[in-house]
């Protein structure tokens, strides 16, 4: 096992030129071995909640620009559950959530005595929650410097390693500032320049949740993140190493809408005394402290006359969802059909947002996007739908890295599209 590099213990606050905001920034020591001078650079960009068809709803000239220059998939199919944290970490690791441990946005540990939550800074930055090796850890071990302007897992000390530069998530930081910092990293001298950079934008997801897919606000957010992508691409074109840069743009899931406010109300169907319910409107996870018999009774009670979804024990989830088995799963999964909802109690109807996700991964409204351009990707290529776990083999192939272990991604889906290296 490669010894973990020491991590700088820093909480540097840097003023942004575009707003009087402070951002926690940490820099780790450079890798002990430097990357070969001919190693390409990969910039991984996430547009959270960008549904597969959003680029057809309004002008996206810079996504179009990427599509002309490289490869576009018709859709990117998410993992179960169709939530932000499980899908981002599956992109980063190439494995299903039951393998990598981030099985939801909020869940208990294996023993059930502590909880991970996307809003809890301590758990998000605790590497013990993350059970698979993400691409930036593999890269750092191989001597490639990395940097992250947000991405699930990049704030944690996974195996004692973080990206060489990283930021604690702060949604108040303007997108323009995020892009500016990425370009600054890419302009560093070769011995300090990252070869893998992540960049994340939550704006489309937020506005689709608040106002609904296709709303004027969501369309404005689509155009805004596309403009930030354009600023990134323009900046990359000015770099001396621009011919060796790959840009991958993707999303973790799509967005759908509720067909009715008439949702399943859990506490009218089953006794929830002592249960911990994680409810998202398009799903509900019921944690029962290991009481499987109670979960089975709840499942049967819900399924008896619910015609807009189904309750499952984890082992009964459809095989196509690749849910696997994890002690972090709830004892009961309540999964509404697309457009239907579930709430814990009648007073929770506000959870049925104008736009949402969390429905089954095989429903097209939950599908995201994938675009990629770079020197070995054939221009103007369109492939059929691919899965989020298929992105990882492509990233490994671009950077010349070996997979750190078993993978669920299919190298034939995307990595096989790379042209041979030029002599």
How would you portray this structure in words?
The protein folds into two domains: about 10-255 and about 360-415, Alkaline Phosphatase, subunit A; about 265-350, Gyrase A, domain 2 (2-Layer Sandwich). The protein has eleven helices and 19 strands. It has helices at about 60-70, 85-95, 95-100, 120-125, 135-140, 175-185, 205-210, 215-235, 265-270, 290-305, 390-400; strands at about 10-15, 20-25, 40-45, 70-75, 105-110, 115, 145-150, 165, 195-200, 245-250, 265, 275-280, 285, 310, 330-335, 340-345, 370-375, 380-385, 385. The strands form four sheets. Strands 1, 2, 3, 4, 7, 8, 9, 10, 17, 18 and 19 form an eleven-stranded mixed sheet that branches. Helix 6 (about 175-185) runs parallel beside helix 8 (about 215-235) and helix 7 runs antiparallel to helix 8. The two termini are about 35 Å apart.
- Roughly what percent helix? 10-25%
Say which CATH homologous superfamily of the largest domain is assigned.
Alkaline Phosphatase, subunit A
Provide the low-confidence segments as ranges: 1-24
| The level-1 CATH class of the largest domain | Alpha Beta
Q: What gross morphology would you assign?
A: globular
Order of helices and strands: EEEHEHHEEHHEEHEHHEEHEEHEEEEEEH
Structural class: alpha/beta
Biggest pleated-sheet summary = 11 strands, mixed
The average pLDDT value, as a whole number, equals 92
Assembly category = single chain
The overall strand count is 19
Total domain count:
2
What is the number of helical segments per DSSP (H or I, 4+ residues)? 11
Distance N to C terminus: 34 Å
Radius of gyration (CA) equals 21 Å
CATH architecture annotation of the largest domain? 3-Layer(aba) Sandwich
Strand content: 15-25%
CATH topology of the largest domain: Alkaline Phosphatase, subunit A
